[in-house]
Amino acid sequence: MSAEPTPSSPPPSSTTSSSPVILYKPPTIQKLIRTAAINLVLPFINGLMLGFGELFAHELAFRWGWGGTRVFPTSRAAAPGVEGRGEVHDGRGRGMKGRGRG
Fold first, then answer.
1. Is the pTM of this model over 0.70?
2. How many domains in the chain?
3. pLDDT of residue 3
4. Has residue 7 been placed in a domain?
């Protein structure tokens, strides 16, 4: 008789284990930090890159003279028929005319 197993013999006991397969592991500090970094930091970096890309594309289009580029949004434009008087503005909506220097 040969020592080789025959097809009708049962498989060795090492291939059949009765221990359960663990699919869930409790979260660790490292996993929580990694998850927080992915969900909080990466979207912030993505937003920065999108913003800088938009600024760069607008600046490039303006410098190359492509049609339809505007330096200021239309909401900042003066009303139709109203012309500026050439006053210097301080950025708060009031002119600097008549203000002394301290």
1. no
2. 1
3. 59
4. no
